[in-house]
Amino acid sequence: MLEITNAKMMYGDLVAVDHLSFTIKPGEIFGLLGTNGAGKTTTFRMIMGLLEPTEGTVLYNGQKVGYHNVNEIGYMIEERSLLTRITVKELMLYFGQLKDMEPKVILERLDYWLKRFDIVAYKDKKIKELSKGNQQKIQFISAIINNPKLLVLDEPFSGLDPINTELFVSVIRDFQKNGSMVVFSSHQLDHVESFCEKIIVLEKGKAIIEGELKNIKKEFRKKKIRIVGNADPDVLRNIEGVYQVLENANEMIVKIEDDSVATKVFNYIKTLDDIQTYDVEEASLSEIFIAKVGNHHEEV
Ligand code: ATP
Questions:
Q1: N- or C-end of the chain: fewer Cβ atoms within 10 A?
Q2: CATH number of residue 28's parent domain
Q3: Rounded to whole angstroms, how far apart are CA atoms 248 and 253?
Q4: 56: domain range?
Q5: pLDDT tens string for the chain (300 positions)?
Q6: Are 253 and 170 in contact (CB under 8 A)?
Q7: 4, 10, 13, 14: residue to mutate for ligand 1 pocket, most atoms within 8 A of CB
């Protein structure tokens, strides 16, 4: 289990992480989300034992992370800085041996992962000859080559296309199925809604949203109604409890304060002939975030 308890980290006067607490159990995928500078990388550095918290504790199976247990952990750092003049094979031998792995085992696992990531042809190529996305795959493989029981991934998906994102997600899920703990960061809030159950959203070092994603969504009473067809946006705007109406190309999104407003909107829609579909949806994580911290952070 990974237990972060009241962790605070200060850089001089700046509070980068402010009394953060969460736990991750074997078989859980945990999302640490938030805008740029929210404190995600700092949290990972505390988990990895690279930074000592100013207050609080960070414990992996009851102990601090250090030389004695780091072989069980995989860490993908945010900076995409690999040793670029050596080959993929040389790089993996280097990282694997840092984790006390036998060269034979490293090379067997490398072959498996290169195949799974569809980059077998790059094994003897220099890192600098690979595209950015393929370098990212290599960096990911270097974090999982030791079959970690705790996998710490700082912005693993940034810059990946949807197909490669799916590929990364399927590998992360396999680690989850095998009982590993996974913690990853992202500033793309909606992007992660589909695959992690527990999250914390950080804002200026503080947890502003936390818990099980399904509960967070259920507790957030604001909803939206998607209407495909011809409704009058001004009539919708005048319904009490409707706080925003967005007119998109083929649909209208009506944002409502809570479920009770839906009946009023439906009563209006039923008077119209030209409506193809309408449905109530839960708010997205970005919408919840914006509602909590204000509109100055649309770009999350
Ligand atoms: P991003 O998504 O941009 O990577 P982040 O959520 O990972 O951001 P951190 O890198 O943890 O955020 O930074 C948290 C805060 O601490 C920021 O205000 C940052 O400027 C500051 N900070 C980070 N590292 C240092 C450092 N070594 N010295 C001083 N301040 C730092």
A1: N
A2: 3.40.50.300
A3: 8
A4: 2-217
A5: 999 999 999 999 999 999 999 999 999 999 999 888 899 999 999 999 999 999 999 999 999 998 888 899 999 988 777 678 899 999 999 999 999 999 999 999 999 999 999 999 999 999 999 998 999 999 999 999 999 999 999 999 988 888 999 999 999 999 999 999 999 998 878 778 778 889 999 999 999 999 998 899 888 888 899 999 889 999 999 999 999 999 998 899 999 998 889 999 999 999 998 888 888 888 888 888 888 876 544 443
A6: no
A7: 14
Q: CB neighbours of 37 closer than 8 A, spacing ≥ 6?
A: 204
The model's pTM: 0.87
| Residue entry with tokens 């950080």 | 202
State the pairing for strand pair 29-34/55-60. Answer: unpaired
Dist. CA 1–CA 20, nearest whole Å: 16
Q: Tell me which residue of 14, 12, 9, 77 sits closest to 41, measured CA to CA.
A: 77
Residues 227 and 198 in one domain: no
Measuring from atom 29 of ligand 1, which residue has the nearest CA?
Answer: 11
Chain center to CA of 44: 13
CATH code for the domain in which residue 273 is found: 3.30.70
What distance in Å separates the CA atoms of residue 27 and residue 45, rounded to the nearest whole number? 22
Amino acid at 65: V
Sheet holding 2-11, edge to edge: 14-24, 2-11, 55-60
